[in-house]
Amino acid sequence: MPDWKTELAMLSRKSFIKQAALSAGAVVAGPSVVEAAEYLSPLKMTILHTNDTHSRMEAFPLDGSRNQGLGGIAARAEIIKKIRAEEDHVLLLDAGDLFQGTPYFNIYKGEPEIKAMSAMKYDACTIGNHDFDAGMENLAAQLTKHATFPMLVTNYDFSGTPMEDKAQPYKIFRKGKLKIGVLGVSIEGRGLIPDTLFGATKYLDPVQKANETANILKRTENCDMIICLSHLGNRYSDKKVSDEVLAKESEYIDLIIGGHTHTFLDEPLKYKNKNGNDVIVNQVGWAGIILGRLDFEFSKFSGKKMVKNHNLPVSQKTGG
């Protein structure tokens, strides 16, 4: 019959083996627990966007018109500030036509518009046809002097013009663990922009260039999401290239933020691309009356999906 010392030693040995087994199990289970947490707690991304603000620096006057009190930089900035305080990962984007429409542009040629966007910390914009209205030299100068954000356009070749090296085809943004690729396309300038303003700019096929650029962002850069800032226009009755056409002919673009046609969409449109995947298209009118907000979630279990869409009215009241 074993004495108490032997029994104690046997119990200690059993406890050690049990503890070691539990520890080993925890090590083995560790990665699974982490992965499960990622499945259950998806990464979140908020995209804020504008288009065709047309130099609307101040709210529309209180004159009884339909848009009285709407828009304005101050109100928009307050909404953006509030959302950034609430959300960890935010991108602020614009789909072109920053210029033209109020005396601010006629007098200052775009300086206050660019300064305001820089103050609001826009992440990127694309170029609209009215952004040429004071000439390429002016646009290049305003961007160089006052922009803290890039102008993205992949289907304009600015070689030999004042805009050479002032725009870029795409930019990649890192938001936490997410890698977001953003590219830009714009409309054919000939017949829309005077030759004296469009100059030697070469217009390239927007669908082809968007697909080439998105392919780089997806297959080479391994982006989790690809956004196209488009100043093509929402849709047309003829065969003119539009956001609808681009969405259907694309392969890797997930979201198109549109402009040019001043289209107010109550809900984003959805199309199937060439691979049978969803492409979301949104546009929020003009003059900064609406700030678009799209919330996305990313998880290993369900991939990426839009979970909410908000059209946020911008006015003296909402701006606080």
- Number of beta-strand segments: 13
Strand/helix succession:
HEHEHHEHEEEHEHEHEEEEE
Strand residues, percent: 15-25%
Principal-axes shape call: globular
Unreliable parts = 4-11, 20-31
Sheet with the most strands: spatial strand order: 5-6-8-9-11-10
Q: If you consult CATH, what is the topology of the largest domain?
A: Purple Acid Phosphatase, chain A, domain 2
- CATH homologous superfamily designation of the largest domain: Metallo-dependent phosphatases
- Largest sheet, described in full? 6 strands, mixed
What's the helix count?
Answer: 8
| Count of discrete structural domains | 2
Mean pLDDT across every amino acid position: 90
Radius of gyration: 26 Å
Class by helix and strand content?
A: alpha/beta
Helix content: 25-40%
Q: What is the name of the CATH class of the largest domain?
A: Alpha Beta
Q: What's the N-to-C terminus distance?
A: 85 Å
CATH architecture of the largest domain: 4-Layer Sandwich
Tell me what the structure shows:
With 320 residues, this protein is of the alpha/beta class. It folds into two domains: 1-40; 42-313, Metallo-dependent phosphatases (Purple Acid Phosphatase, chain A, domain 2, 4-Layer Sandwich). The chain is 32% helix and 23% strand. The chain is built from eight helices and 13 strands. The chain has helices at residues 4-40, 73-86, 103-108, 111-119, 136-146, 195-198, 206-220, 243-249, and strands at 43-50, 90-94, 124-125, 156-157, 170-175, 178-186, 202-203, 225-231, 255-258, 269-272, 278-282, 290-299, 303-313. The chain has a six-stranded mixed β-sheet, with helices on one face. Strands 3-2-1-12-13 form a five-stranded mixed β-sheet, covered by helices on one side. The longest helix has 37 residues, at 4-40. The protein is globular. The N and C termini lie far apart (85 Å). 39% of the residues are buried. The model is unreliable at 4-11 and 20-31 (pLDDT under 50).
